[in-house]
Structure formats: C-alpha cells, structure tokens
Amino acid sequence: MKAIIKKILLNLAGWLIQTPLYKLFIIAAVRSVFFFQKYEDNDTKKSILILNHERFSHDLEALCLDKRVKLLILPSRIQTLLNSLFLNSNFSYQVNSYQNKKNETKKLVRFVVEFINKLNEKYNLCGIVTCSFYYRQDFPYQFASLKTPVPFYVIFKEYMKDESVVEHTIKNYKRKKFKFVGEKIFSANKNIEKILLESGVCQKSRISLVGSPRFDNIFKSNIYSNKYNKNKHTKKVVTFFSFLHSSGSIELNGSNNFFSDNGDGYYKLFRDVHKSVAELAVDNRDVQFIIKTKWGGIWFDKIVSSVLSATGIDILHQPNITLLSEGNTQELIMKSSLVIAFNSTTVLESGLLGKNIIIPVYNEAKDKYYESNLFFKKYLDSLIIASSNKDLKDKVIKYLFDHKHYPLPKKMIKDFLIFYDGKSSKRILDIILQKEEKIDEK
User: Fold this and answer.
1) How many angstroms separate the CA atoms of 411 and 379, rounded?
2) Pairing of strands 46-50, 125-130
3) pTM to 2 decimals?
C-alpha cells in the first residue's frame, strides 16, 4: 500500500512540476541546500554548489581549509527526486539524450537552469562541483551550466588508473560515448589526462592536472606522525581494506558488476585474503582486525559467507574482528598498526600516513590478471608483497611489531598524484575563482 501511495504522489508531483506551480518546487529545492560546515552569517564569500558530497568528503574537507569560498551542499536525495519527476525511470538517460535535447531532458534542464539561477541570487555561486563527469544524475546540471553564469567542474575521484588499465579504460569510455561539456575536469595524474583525451571525453583545454585534494591534509599536518608514535604501545590494530572481485576494472560475466558467483575476477584472492585475516584473528586474540569496505549489504554478506565456507569461522561472532563500512578512512589508517590493501588509493594514503602496507599478489593477481588488472606492478620490488596465504600471515606478524616505516617509492607517488605538496585544493580554487573574475569583468 505504501508503495502505491508513493507512486501516486510522485505522479502527482511530476504533473504539478510541469505546470505554473513548478515555482513551488524551485523554492523547496532552494531551501533544501545546506552548508558543508558552519560559516559566519554575514560572510560574503563566493559559494560552490556541491553534488554527491558523500562520495568525496575527504576532498571537500581539504577544500574547506581554503577560506576564500563556502561549500553549499545539494542533498543527493533531493537531486534524485527532482530528476525523477521529469525522467521516466524505465529509460536510461545517457549523455546523448541531453546533447540531442530529448523532450524530457530538455524540460529537466530548463527547470535546473532556473533552480541554479535562484541559488546564485541567494548564495553568490562561482561554480558547481561534483566528483565524476559520467554520473547520470549530474547531466542536467552540467548542461544547465551552459545556460547560466555558473560553470560546472569535476574533481575526478576515480583516478586510480594504473598503466595496465589505461587502454582498456579508453575503449570503455569510447564504447559508452562519454562526453564532458562543463568547464573543467580536475585530474590527479597524466594517465587520466591521456584517457580523457584519447577516448574523446573532452579537449585538453578542459583538463587541469592539479593532484588530489584529499592528500593535502596528509601533507600539511604533523598530527598523523604524532598519533602514530603515541599508538606504538597500545593495542595492535590491523586494517584490511577489502576489495571487489571486479577490482582493477575487471568486467565480470553476469549481471553483478562487483561480485562473481562462478569464479570470475579476483574470486580466489578475495576468498583467500579474507580467510587468512579471519584465521589470523582467531590465532591472535590480542590483536584487533578491522575489515573495511566502501559499503555494507552484499559486500558484508560476501565476506561473511566466503570466510564461513572456507574456514568455518563466523566472523560476526569473533570479538576481535570488525566489519566496517562507515567512517573516516584517514583516521582509521592513523589508528592502525598495519594495513593490508590491494589495487586501492588506500595503498598511497597508508604509505603517506606512515603506515606499512602489505599487498597480496597471488592467485589471479599472480597469473590471470597480472598483466591486465594488477596495479603498482612497476613498484612491486619496492613494496611489501605477500605471495601466498602463509606469506601474508607471516608478514602480518612480522610487520605488526616492526616500527620501522618502509616508505613508498617517490616515482610511484608522482605517477598517481603528480603533485604531493599540499596545494591541490588551492590550484582548484585558483582556477574556479579566476574564471569567476573573468565572468564578473564581462
């Protein structure tokens, strides 16, 4: 009954929003926004409208340290609701639906233009910022920006593109016909620049190599090393950043894009690394083991069932194993004595936060996907690598009690971050505010 009532209300709202009463929806949408943090009431700084804020919170925290702007959040649920009032959920509205000005998308863009203009009047916007150029929910804002004085920017968060997946990613972007028509994509490295250019996503003038804002705080603050030193003699914590079967841009067979039921992707490596962590926890009750995922639900279910079938251990009933999907990743790394990670940004973050990282390179990572979907291959000789379940367990125990830090290769940091100097946020805001100055001059 609730579902029926909800559908009726959405249909009614969808009809009302295309009548003169649409202005009520504009007013409601304007009132739904909120600031990322507290600012002075009389603050006259420029504002940036942020979309999908929960997807790149570390970057936004870094941007907030620059006092030249205020970050204004559009709740994702409001954004999704407004889109759904115009777009039939049975149809996939890709970027060409906006380029070709399909009737439904044209109406939505017209609505968003008025919404952005109202926000601009109230909050003095100098830009709209999101974290990817291909999020479908953002297309109306990208195309609306062409008809407002408020430019559209992307701080591209999916920049962990090792050389091994560059050509595959280019083909994938071409196949999906991705296009960017906004003002600028801020990129962390040259691999992303190459992908965007060769796949035809945008011209070089729309790309700026700036580094990654989320690493600014790591660079600037000494508190991390202080906490690391203070925690040396407290309870040991091993944090394992879990990974998907599709890690490294693997395209799985079947309908699930993340996990395989028939052994595709990093199926065996996923099973064995989680199995080893569970067995380590059972054998070392004085050590706390945290398994961190990006979300819960099916990911938690796969971990629990995989470990249970492989070992008989129910990790939900182990007092020193914690499954975790929420929380600040950098704070979690700081509290850790040792990190296990694979094909992930957390390898860089952990190393730069003064933690030793063990990378499992066996099963499919050693043979099936070594050439095509394994990250950091060029640097394996300089990293702590586990070559088997036994080797992983041995090295966890060894490095758990080794307080010497084994730093990441400088070339590796440069290849993935291009700049590691604490100024990525400044570079981004300099470009946005310079653009605003040019608009004001006109």
Assistant:
1) 9
2) parallel
3) 0.90
Among 162, 158, 154, residue whose Cα is nearest residue 191: 162
* Cα distances (Å, whole numbers) of residue 139 to 143, 144, 196, 344: 6, 8, 17, 27
Distances (CA, A) of 393 to 65, 282, 350, 390: 40, 12, 19, 5
Q: Tens digits of per-residue pLDDT, 316-372?
A: 999 999 999 998 899 999 999 999 999 999 999 999 999 999 999 999 999 999 999
Supply the CATH classification number for the domain 222-416: 3.40.50.2000
Query: What letter represents residue 19's amino acid?
Result: T
Q: Name the CA dihedral angle for 6, 12, 15, 18, rounded to a multiple of 10 degrees.
A: -90
Average pLDDT, rounded, for the chain: 91
DSSP, residue by residue, 96-149: HHHHTT-HHHHHHHHHHHHHHHHHHHHH-EEEEEES-S--GGGHHHHHHGGGSS
CB atoms within 10 A of CB 244: 22
Q: Which CATH architecture has domain 25-211+421-441?
A: 3-Layer(aba) Sandwich (3.40)
Residue limits of CATH 3.40.50.2000 in the chain:
222-416
Q: In angstroms, how far is the first alpha carbon of the chain from the final one?
A: 55
